[in-house]
C-alpha cells in the first residue's frame, strides 16, 4: 500500500471535513501561512510562479486556490486564470479580495470542466488534502490540453535527516502554539502535521504522478525539501 493510500485511511480527508476546516481559517489563512512557515511561503510562491511560467493568453487552472493569492500572480503574468477550491469560505474571501479573478467551486477529484481545457494545471499545498490523490491527478490530466503542463507545489520530506528531525519537532510543538496565538483550533494543526509526515516523499510522489498518465516528471526541493515542486507534461490524450 502506498503512502498516499496509508494517509487516506489514517486521516479524515472527506470533502466535507476539509472544506469545513478551511472555511474556519479563511480570513486568516494567508497570514497563518506566513507566520507558520517563517515567511518561507512567499519564496515558495515565487518558485511556483516561475515553474508555472504562465504566458499571455494561456489558460491556467489553479486547484485548491484558496483565497487566490497565487492565482493573482498568474493573472499578472497575462494568463486567463480559473481559481478553483472546495471551501466556500475561501472562495468568499477570495472574491472579496480579488474581484477580477474567476473563482469556481470544485472538487479536485471531480472537476467541473471539459476535457482538454487548460494549458496549465497547478495546485499548491492541496494535493495531500484530497481524499483520492490518484483520481485528482487523473482529473488534472483530463482537463489539460495535449502538451500542457502540471505544477504541484507541496510539502515534502526534508532530505537531511538531522534537519528532518528538527522539522518534525517544529511541526509538533511550535506550529500548534502559533495556531493558538491566531485563535485557531489545535486539531486543525494536528491534522496538518500528520498529513505532512504521512505524505509520500519526492520520488514516490513522482511515481504516483506518472501512474496518472503524466510524462517528463521532475522535481525541485525548496528549503531543503520542506517543500518540493513537481512538474510534468501531458504528451498524449
Could you please describe the fold and organization of this structure?
With 237 residues, the chain is of the alpha/beta class. It is 47% helix and 21% strand. Strands 3-2-1-4-5-7-6 form a seven-stranded mixed beta sheet, with helices on both faces. Helix 6 (88-97) links the parallel strand 2 (80-85) and strand 3 (102-105). The model is unreliable at 1-10 (pLDDT under 50).
Short précis:
With 237 residues, the protein is of the alpha/beta class. The protein has ten helices and seven strands.
List the helices and strands and how they pair.
Blueprint: H1 3-10, H2 15-23, H3 29-36, H4 40-52, E1 59-63, H5 69-76, E2 80-85, H6 88-97, E3 102-105, E4 118-124, H7 133-143, E5 144-155, H8 161-181, H9 186-198, H10 202-211, E6 215-222, E7 227-233
Parallel strand pairs: 1-2, 1-4, 2-3, 4-5
Antiparallel strand pairs: 5-7, 6-7
Helix pairs in contact: 8-9
Amino acid at each position: 500500500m502506498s503512502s498516499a493510500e496509508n494517509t487516506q485511511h489514517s486521516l479524515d480527508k472527506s470533502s466535507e471535513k476539509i472544506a469545513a476546516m478551511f472555511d474556519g481559517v479563511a480570513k486568516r489563512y494567508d497570514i497563518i501561512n506566513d507566520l507558520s512557515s517563517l515567511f518561507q511561503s512567499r519564496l515558495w510562491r515565487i518558485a511556483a510562479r516561475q515553474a508555472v511560467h504562465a504566458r499571455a493568453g494561456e489558460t491556467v487552472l489553479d486547484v485548491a486556490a484558496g483565497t487566490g493569492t497565487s492565482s493573482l500572480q498568474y493573472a499578472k503574468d497575462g494568463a486567463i486564470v480559473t481559481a478553483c477550491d472546495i471551501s466556500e469560505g475561501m472562495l468568499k474571501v477570495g472574491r472579496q479580495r480579488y474581484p477580477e479573478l474567476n473563482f469556481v467551486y470544485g472538487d479536485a477529484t471531480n472537476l467541473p470542466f471539459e476535457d482538454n481545457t487548460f494549458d496549465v494545471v497547478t495546485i499548491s499545498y492541496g494535493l495531500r488534502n484530497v481524499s483520492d490523490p490518484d483520481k485528482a491527478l487523473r482529473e488534472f490530466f483530463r482537463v489539460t490540453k495535449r502538451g500542457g503542463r502540471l505544477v504541484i507545489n507541496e510539502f515534502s520530506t526534508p532530505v537531511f535527516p538531522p534537519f528532518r528531525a528538527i522539522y518534525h519537532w517544529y511541526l509538533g510543538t511550535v506550529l500548534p502554539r502559533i495556531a493558538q496565538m491566531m485563535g485557531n483550533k489545535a486539531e486543525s494543526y494536528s491534522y496538518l502535521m500528520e498529513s505532512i509526515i504521512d505524505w509520500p516523499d519526492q520520488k514516490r510522489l513522482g511515481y504516483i504522478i506518472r501512474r496518472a498518465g503524466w510524462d517528463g516528471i521532475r522535481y525541485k526541493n525548496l528549503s531543503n525539501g520542506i517543500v518540493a515542486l513537481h512538474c510534468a507534461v501531458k504528451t498524449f490524450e
